[in-house]
Design a protein that fits this description.
globular, about 900 residues, three-stranded antiparallel β-sheet, disordered C terminus
Length: about 900
């Protein structure tokens, strides 16, 4: 209620300020209009007094006056129209946490924040202040007070949860929706529009609370980790960003003078305790403060305990409380936690149970709806209390009053969520017995496993998975695990809960193309299943999932080993139909691994084996797996240079997916788009750039719509489409050199420029996305560098193109070795660039190397040799030799169409 009243008061103040501004502008305009009217009237009288008389003159003057009054009134702002863009924008209400009634002191730190964020008149642009300190020191509370104090100065005030990059992104997208930014499938586009809005609407304040700079490699420094935060900060605009964090270093580039928060000074601590306890017995309060080291969180806990236990500071009960604190050997805040939790446990055991449950979840955003919807999986004592929502609300209120839990949202405009300080979580877990730790650890696992979508790979499950991932990370970080059969502990109810959750979380991360994170989840699943948890069928599935992640990360040896373990388990159960589907998937995975090793015949054999399994089962299985197998067989044919056979496989895959159910399912729509992508790539291999452009453009539109612009698969399609646009641009430029008509020459040059600009537009976001993944997926980044190098060549930046392609070559050599055809593809692109730069001999050497790799690994008739021979012909000085090379290229090119004619 107090928060609601506070919000209404602040809103009323803002309306008063806005009304004053409107009145001021209106009065100024009216005054200016009156002055103008007076001047006009005087001028008219002077002008016409000798030429007109009586009613005629005054009628003329009256007419002019009416016109001027009308103009002034029209210029004045109406109630529905303000004087500027800032006032007319839809500013959402602030979402600040409650301001503590007991906040005191921190004047020096507040002054430093003020100096950093408001340095003086004439200073424009974004200002950033970093407030850092240890956990429980009061950073968020100080930021809350600052934001509340400055509400009237800011057009927009927003509190953002920055405990993880994903959580922060969610809050930013929510802000964008609140201010009226239209939905877009690309989160990057939405953020860009949000930054533009902030640039156009000054005087905002964004509080980034508890920035943890997550997701960095273990050996990366603070500055490297800070780079992950930069894309989530507004790059410009007249506004302020206040960051709270425990990270001490690495902020120099963002905030040259970070503000450090430490424990209370004694005077501040005594002032706080006076306010918190209502006592003026300073000496006794000072003894309490010294005992707790003036640690703000510990003092808050002590004050809450004294209030709830109705202890008088002047009484013997207070002396007893001090004695009990002094007997504790833990840290200062842990001493107060101990006594508060003991009291809670005596009064309401279920309240302590809720704390135990939340200690294994993420520290913030525990949804009330999730707790109630899946309460059946919780231990009985807590579950029975939750049957009565009013009783549960009282239980939460008791924890909030003891400063052990926070509650956010009103249940109407915002969902209700709970939070618990990380230091409280650590303390609660530390005092659990082995029995209790197992019970509540597994209760948290069961809760999140019940809430986590059963099909995380489906597109409509993404949002729910994204919201739950912080809790997945928390419950899987250090769970207690045992094989108890006594029927008392939660683990005995469902011993497979954790491994099921690990598998689903891994599937979600794999679907997001975060293969490194997915691999970590699947590896833990295999470890637990290896201890006897679950069936061998599930173990085989987990090994196969690990093989898939290694394969996608270009780690072919561990991928082959993991796939072999999965297939061995299938071989041990040849007569079990349940293993046949896993066997088919193993065959598909082996086919992909062998395809990357250029062993196309063996790869095709494995895919044929998988297809036989699917054909034998018929409609008894999910037809989409059969269709994907046909698609993967087509990829083997394409890599081997059998383009017509590849198209036949893609056609059969499309027929299977069309006959297997609703064609409107989003997954089926995306799969058909993937087939169009593959058809477009084949057309590009054949040199049919018009068809390639048509198919890839259609596929790109679907991927952007269904999976978003930041999705890896969307980026892959954009990468191929950019290369097609580049080649069409080069074709137009070559045609313009042959054109005789100036108008046609100019038109072709304009088309070439348009194609190259489109290629840049497509490739830019791909470079950004894959550049961020380079540490773990360098091979995918190298493929993008290939396209970039060719585009730089087309634009005439030859030295840049050479450097880019050399970088791609080095990555491929490291990942696959010097004799892999991926390196040869890079050399094929590098050859013409070197020739254009004047290095004819070096160009011919690189192209000869590429020819040798292609012939050895792919055969003498592979489509990749078409470009090699064409570029070698350009390098040849002997006309006969050049003609022979062009004839070879033409013969291979014609063979790509079999009996059909190339376009």
């Amino acid at each position: 209620m107090s928060a609601l009243l506070s919000g209404l008061v602040v809103d009323a103040r803002k309306r008063i300020v806005l009304t004053r501004k409107r009145l001021t502008v209106t009065m100024k305009r009216l005054a200016a209009g009156a002055t103008a009217l007076s001047g006009v009237a005087v001028a008219l009288v002077a002008l016409f007094k000798d030429k007109t008389t009586g009613p005629v003159m005054w009628g003329l003057v009256g007419f002019v006056v009416l016109v001027m009054v009308s103009l002034v009134v029209m210029a004045a702002p109406s109630p529905g129209r303000t004087t500027g863009d800032t006032a007319s924008a839809a500013f959402p209400p602030n979402n600040l946490p409650f301001r503590s009634r007991y906040f005191v002191g921190r004047t020096q730190e507040m002054a430093r924040i003020e100096r950093t964020l408001s340095p003086g008149k004439g200073t424009k642009g974004r200002r950033v202040c970093v407030l850092h300190g240890t956990g429980g020191i009061g950073k968020s509370q100080l930021a809350t007070v600052y934001a509340h104090d400055k509400l009237e100065e800011h057009s927009l005030t927003r509190w953002l949860n920055a405990t993880s990059s994903d959580r922060l992104l969610c809050d930013l997208l929510e802000l964008a929706a609140l201010i009226g930014i239209a939905y877009h499938e690309s989160k990057t586009v939405v953020l860009s529009r949000l930054w533009s809005w902030l640039r156009d609407h000054p005087d905002w304040l964004l509080v980034y609370d508890n920035v943890q700079l997550d997701g960095a490699e273990a050996d990366s420094g603070p500055i490297d980790r800070l780079q992950r935060l930069q894309p989530l900060l507004p790059p410009e605009g007249v506004g302020k960003v206040l960051i709270t964090t425990q990270q001490r270093e690495g902020w120099t580039g963002l905030c040259p003078d970070p503000v450090e928060l430490t424990v209370y000074a004694e005077a501040e601590g005594i002032e706080f305790l006076r306010l918190r306890t209502g006592s003026a017995a300073d000496e006794r309060l000072a003894r309490l403060g010294r005992l707790l080291g003036w640690q703000p969180l510990a003092l808050e806990q002590a004050g809450a305990y004294i209030e709830q236990a109705e202890i008088s500071v002047e009484s013997e009960d207070f002396e007893d409380y001090l004695q009990r604190l002094s007997e504790q050997t833990a840290d200062s805040d842990a001493k107060t936690f101990e006594l508060a939790i003991e009291r809670i446990g005596r009064q309401s055991p279920a309240a302590e149970d809720l704390l135990r449950l939340c200690s294994f979840l993420a520290s913030e955003d525990v949804p009330r709806t999730t707790l109630f919807r899946y309460r059946s999986v919780l231990p009985d004592r807590l579950r029975l209390v939750m049957e009565d929502q009013l009783a549960f609300t009282r239980l939460v209120l008791k924890l909030v009053q003891h400063s052990l839990m926070t509650r956010h949202g009103d249940g109407r405009t915002e969902p209700v969520t709970y939070g618990i300080h990380p230091r409280v979580q650590i303390f609660i877990r530390s005092r659990l017995t082995g029995h209790e730790r197992l019970e509540w650890s597994q209760a948290a696992v069961r809760l999140i496993e019940a809430a986590f979508p059963l099909a995380p790979e489906q597109l409509d499950s993404r949002l729910a998975c994204e919201r739950l991932m912080p809790h997945v990370d928390a419950v899987t970080a250090e769970p207690a695990w045992a094989d108890d059969n006594d029927g008392e502990l939660g683990a005995a109810r469902d011993p497979e809960g954790l491994v099921r959750l690990l598998h689903r979380a891994g599937s979600y991360q794999s679907h997001r193309c975060d293969w490194k994170s997915a691999l970590a989840f699947f590896a833990r699943e295999v470890e637990l299943r290896g201890l006897g948890t679950g069936s061998e069928h599930s173990l085989a599935t987990a090994h196969l999932a690990i093989a898939r992640q290694h394969y996608l990360l270009a780690r072919l040896d561990p991928a082959e080993a993991a796939c072999g373990r999965a297939l061995a388990l299938c071989d041990a159960h040849k007569d079990d139909d349940a293993f046949q589907q896993v066997r088919a998937q193993c065959c598909r995975q082996f086919g992909g691994i062998l395809r990357e090793r250029n062993r196309f015949r063996e790869a095709g054999g494995y895919l044929e084996a998988a297809l036989r399994i699917y054909e034998h089962q018929g409609s008894g299985w999910e037809v989409s797996d059969w269709a994907v197998t046909e698609q993967e067989a087509g990829m083997i044919h394409r890599n081997a240079g059998r383009l017509t056979a590849a198209l036949d496989c893609y056609r059969r895959a499309g027929e299977l997916i069309s006959s297997g159910g609703s064609t409107g399912l989003e997954e089926n729509v995306v799969f058909r788009a993937a087939l169009r992508r593959d058809v477009g790539i084949v057309a590009q291999d054949r040199g049919d750039l018009d068809t390639a452009q048509t198919e890839l453009t259609a596929a790109h539109a679907v991927f952007r719509s269904k999976r978003g612009e930041e999705d890896f698969e969307t980026a892959q399609v954009a990468k191929f489409l950019a290369d097609v646009e580049r080649r069409k641009g080069q074709q137009c430029r070559a045609a313009s050199r042959q054109a005789r008509s100036p108008l046609r020459k100019r038109g072709l040059r304009a088309k070439a420029q348009a194609h190259l600009a489109r290629a840049h537009e497509l490739l830019g976001p791909v470079l950004t996305l894959l550049g961020e993944r380079r540490a773990t997926e360098a091979h995918t980044y190298a493929a993008c560098l290939n396209k970039l190098g060719s585009l730089q060549w087309a634009e005439g930046h030859l030295n840049k193109a050479i450097d880019t392609l050399r970088e791609a070559e080095a990555i491929y050599v490291t990942a696959y070795g010097p004799d892999h055809h991926y390196r040869a593809k890079t050399l094929c692109r590098l050859g013409p660039v070197l020739r254009a730069a004047g290095y004819r001999t070096r160009a011919e050497q690189e192209l000869r190397t590429a020819e040798g790799i292609f012939v050895t690994s792919l055969g003498e008739e592979h489509p990749s040799l078409v470009a090699v021979y064409a570029f070698l012909a350009d390098c040849a000085t002997d006309p006969v030799r050049a003609a022979d090379l062009r004839a070879r290229a033409d013969r291979i090119h014609r063979s790509l169409w079999d009996n059909s004619s190339p376009s």
